[in-house]
Design a protein that fits this description.
alpha/beta, 37 strands, globular, 21-stranded parallel sheet, about 600 residues
Length: about 600
């Protein structure tokens, strides 16, 4: 065997050995980094689900408008294994475990929460109702990189979810779907019907939930006459799915229509899940009005809070309308015929039998006004106003236009005697079954100040607004969800037989597009509003899906207003300008912010 000069046999083995050590270290580092990345992503998914689950549990427990102060509020992290957590945060721990992480061994899971404070982990979120921060970690044994002395590594993740208010962006929500019959002008599946030169000008988005596009000659939007249309000056006009407008009217929608929209929250009732505004407290003052003459009954010119009903000469309740033929103020203080003005208060009123206003000025101080059914007419009429009638509150117009109210505002609830939790005076109970849903009719006369309406919805920031009403701000008119062709659940969801009612699924034979119906056919779900320069409403006009609103009049009606309804019709050539609201509808939602 020949030996090379210098005797350097085996050098290659040494060099290869040294290189192998380096290669193994690099390979180990790559493997460990890859594994750490995988664990990190898994931990983040677990933290996200834990935070969202706990915040959702809190929201489901409290509900819209409830108090979160009674829930878990440990401001600093508490381990899931400590045994010191309540049901809300334990829900988060359970979701972390379902995603592969528990508070034991090499893994750690902890939860922190707070009510009505800023979450430490996401300080830029602002004011929230409730927040939850989940922290998830895992120590990772090192494999190949242990050659370099790395025995243990780790991965951790953090997530924060909040219950927070968001503003509903639309100016006009038309909720009827393709199989719904609500609008008698356009028929099944019609959301917007514009006659003549009538026009809607919205300061925000316009939403049409119907997918009708010509079936049985019905469309989501229909028009008659040579002009008129719908314009969203600071938003868009959005139609769900394949919905479309009557051929030849496309150019009347500005900006260009955007159909093909997926079925999301913009096409659902913004008040879903909130139930309905509760009535005044039970056992309020009983105000028996002889022959229904409010002016004689309230001789001082001020009617106080109470339950009003007409009686005959013998004192028996009649169910007849309450009549006003001279100016009167509905005060926020006092009681019945001894009412008093109290702009800083909040009056509680229920009227049985309906209202008739004749050439008067009626002033409504802040309060809850329930019109609990009527029996005259087919369908009955809850409001009947004559020309030269003024309905106003404590916030005067400025420059002929509505301005935000600084007081508590008003909410008018149009319903019948079966409204949930409504207290009925003993004198009225025998005829309560005769007092039915009625048309809400607030139109009379024309332009030029013959009839003027200036009312403001609830102000959510005013301390006089009862806590049980704040979540319905800034509603000014609320139509009972039961007065509709479409059935709602008691909790305020569309009823498609789901159990529980918040479930996204429906019972066999039903769907969200084909829900249960009420069988109402008498026209009572209709609301008529005076669409003239003399109508000024500040707030939300609400009707459920399956109800409809008719704007009748001439000239230009300008109102800072959001309209929620099943469908809408315009007649007489008015332009209804829906200006943006300074305090639009707010919904509580659960959102992941970190």
């Amino acid at each position: 065997m020949r030996v090379l000069p210098g005797g350097r046999r085996g050098q290659v083995i040494v060099m290869v050995t040294l290189v192998l050590f380096a290669m193994c270290g690099i390979m180990g580092l790559a493997v460990d980094l890859g594994w750490a990345y995988f664990v990190k992503k898994s931990a983040q998914a677990a933290a996200d689900s834990a935070a969202l689950a706990a915040a959702s549990k809190a929201f489901d427990t409290v509900g819209e408008g409830g108090s979160y102060s009674t829930l878990d509020t440990p401001g600093t992290p508490v381990p899931c294994s400590s045994g010191g957590l309540g049901l809300v945060l334990l829900e988060g721990c359970a979701y972390a475990q379902r995603n592969g992480f528990s508070d034991s061994g090499r893994q750690g899971v902890s939860m922190a929460a707070g009510a009505y404070s800023v979450p430490v982990a996401a300080p830029k979120v602002g004011s929230v109702h409730y927040w939850v921060t989940a922290r998830v970690s895992e120590r990772i044994p090192q494999l190949f990189s242990a050659v370099l002395g790395n025995v243990l590594g780790g991965a951790s993740a953090r997530a924060t979810a909040v219950v927070i208010n968001v503003e509903a962006p639309g100016s006009l929500y038309t909720l009827d779907r393709q199989f719904d019959y609500g609008n008698p002008d356009g028929g099944t599946g019609n959301d917007i019907f514009v006659a003549g030169n009538s026009k809607i000008t919205a300061g925000g988005d316009v939403y049409l939930a119907s997918t009708s596009h010509g079936e049985s000659d019905h469309y989501a939007g229909e028009g008659r006459g040579s002009g008129g249309g719908v314009e969203a000056t600071n938003g868009g006009v959005f139609i769900r799915g394949a919905g479309w407008v009557e051929p030849g009217t496309e150019g009347r929608y500005v900006p260009t229509l955007e159909n093909g929209q997926r079925d999301g929250s913009i096409f659902k009732d913004p008040f879903r899940g909130k139930g309905q505004p509760p009535p005044p407290p039970a056992n309020g003052p009983r105000c028996a009005v002889p022959l229904g003459d409010l002016n004689t009954y309230c001789a001082s010119g001020t009617c106080g809070p109470g339950n009003y009903f007409a009686v005959d000469k013998s004192g028996q309740a009649t169910g007849d309308p309450l009549v006003l033929s001279a100016d009167v103020r509905f005060g926020a203080g006092g009681s019945c015929d001894a009412g008093s003005s109290n702009p800083g208060g909040f009056g509680e009123y229920v009227f049985f039998g309906g209202f008739e206003f004749a050439k008067t000025t009626s002033t409504f101080e802040p309060g809850r006004y329930v019109l609990a059914g009527a029996r005259q007419g087919s369908p009955p009429t809850l409001w009947s106003i004559d020309t030269q009638t003024n309905l106003q509150d404590n916030t005067p117009l400025q420059g002929g236009q509505s301005v935000p109210n600084t007081d508590a505002g008003e909410i008018f609830i149009f319903t019948d005697t079966n409204y949930p939790r409504l207290w009925i005076p003993p004198e009225v109970q025998s005829l309560a079954s005769q007092l039915k849903f009625g048309v809400s009719d607030l139109q009379a006369g024309g332009a030029g100040g013959k009839t003027e309406i200036n009312l403001h919805g609830l102000n959510p920031d005013h301390p006089a607004v009862p806590a049980d009403l704040k979540t319905f701000s800034p509603t000014v008119f609320w139509q009972d969800q039961r007065n509709s062709t479409i059935k709602y659940t008691p909790g305020g969801y569309i009823d498609c037989g789901q159990v529980p009612e918040t479930s996204p699924g429906c019972a066999a034979g039903y769907s969200i597009d084909n829900p249960k119906t009420t069988g109402i056919t008498n026209g009572s779900p209709e609301m008529n509003l005076q669409a003239t320069p003399s109508t000024h409403l500040y707030g939300v006009v609400y009707q459920p899906r399956g109800a409809w609103v008719v704007f009748q009049g001439s000239g230009t009606m300008i109102a800072p207003m959001q309209v929620i309804t099943g469908s809408i019709s315009l007649h007489g050539g008015p332009e209804v300008i829906l200006q943006p609201l300074g305090n639009p509808i707010r919904r509580q939602v659960v959102a992941l912010v970190e």
